[in-house]
Amino acid sequence: MTDFSFSIQTSEKSAAVAARAGTARAAVLTTPHGVIQTPAFVPVGTRASVKGILPELLQKIGAQVVLANTYHLYLQPGEKVVEAAGGLATFMDWKQVTRHELDNNNSPVDDVSYLPTMTDSGGFQVFSLGAAFGRTITKIAKGEELAHDQQENQRLTTYDEDVQSKHGQLAIIDDEGVTFTSHLDGSLHRFTPERSIEIQHALGADMFFAFDECTAPTEPYEYQKEAMDRTHRWAQRSLKAHRQNIDANRKQAIFGIVQGGRHENLRSESAKEIASMDFDGFGIGGSFSKEDMEGALQAAIKELPEGKPRHFLGIGEPGDILTGIAEGIDLFDCVAATRLGRHGTIYTRRGNLNLTNEKFTNDFTSLDPETIIPGTEGFTRAYVSHLLRSHELLGQVIASMHNLGFIIRLVDGAREAILHNRFAEYREGFILDYYG
């Protein structure tokens, strides 16, 4: 990689702080399409679109980078279409426009620069299409979920609520890759590590992930280890496929993914193995139990090299994000903020509010008086509640924008606190206010 660098500015490592705040760090991640100040939250634009939010408004609320889904873009419109458009950022018009002084013809001159992007590998679809058929399972499970059906060995699943269809999706995992049916039309497809990398090269994101197998947190230990070992073999193949493409290797960074479920020994083993490979950065993937997440995360982090970026995949709960930052995570992505917004729930400093509740009908306060988000600051709870209960799309857009802005502001605040050596106090104050 010649167009990619990562520089740590500061981290809280003193004995007193480390006991409370781990090794939270602020860094600068330089990509071919711009600089990302970390820690940073990465909005998810599954189909090259963050649901309901124009790219220019994403910038307004502070987004620095977006992540798109390899599986979905492969199925529609196809990676070749995105490649022909000039890559993901160009295709979705994810750009920054700077207006300069008048030129010789007395006309303003616009300087357009496209912004950083990421893509996943399609590996999460191995989980959502292949590891939990017919079961409502998320990446982080609570204790009662873990106790249910732990010995079930079924390898089929429907995808989540946003992509279910009448076609009855399924996926079959083997050591070479995964065979799956499209949720769009039921047609049969196959991903291997090499094919995933080929697609991601065509999509052209600045950073992308090696092909992996994500498991459900309810899977037994034996299968977690089997999937982890398979992920390691797929990581080697993904890395080889990328390094052999000289042009892509110069313009794109590849991240390896640590697996191992909720088990600290597997997380440690996986991190050691992935760290031994020549990846440009690392993702912490897979699934956890709520109770075991911090221990599994710590076991992985300590085995990863200090000087490369770390991404916590699919984590968006505010408290979980702060836990990740405390342990030294640099990047986060999750669909939760916009999904909650579409269903009428907004984040506030004092906890979540469901604006579809009747009690907000005459609540003319701002969405969150303590967290003002550019672009949504003029709207009241009463107005957005009316829109949501009337099934007006604008209500979903406003709530989604507010939620994304809230999470981005939370992470930006953590960065500022790290730079001023007060992250522990920042985290403790937020947790006390938010969770009460």
Structural notes for this entry:
The protein is of the alpha/beta class and 436 residues long. The chain folds into two domains: 42-85 and 116-332, TIM Barrel (Alpha-Beta Barrel); 339-435, no CATH class. 39% of the residues lie in helices and 19% in strands. The chain contains 17 helices and 20 strands. The strands form six sheets. An eight-stranded parallel β-sheet has the order 4-18-17-15-14-13-8-5. Strands 1-2-3 form a three-stranded antiparallel β-sheet. The protein has a three-stranded antiparallel β-sheet with strand order 10-11-12. The longest helix has 27 residues, at 393-419. The chain is globular. The model is unreliable at 14-21, 131-137 and 144-168 (pLDDT under 50).
Give the topology, please.
Layout: E1 5-11, H1 15-21, E2 25-31, E3 34-38, E4 40-43, H2 55-60, E5 66-68, H3 70-75, H4 79-84, H5 88-91, E6 95-102, E7 108-114, E8 117-119, H6 123-130, E9 140-141, H7 143-146, E10 171-173, E11 178-181, E12 188-191, H8 193-203, E13 207-209, H9 221-243, H10 246-251, E14 253-258, H11 264-275, E15 281-284, E16 288-289, H12 293-301, E17 310-312, H13 318-327, E18 331-334, H14 336-342, E19 345-346, E20 353-354, H15 381-389, H16 393-419, H17 423-435
Parallel strand pairs: 4-18, 5-8, 8-13, 9-16, 13-14, 14-15, 15-17, 17-18
Antiparallel strand pairs: 1-2, 2-3, 6-7, 10-11, 11-12, 19-20
Helix pairs in contact: 8-9, 9-11, 11-12, 13-16, 14-16, 15-16, 16-17
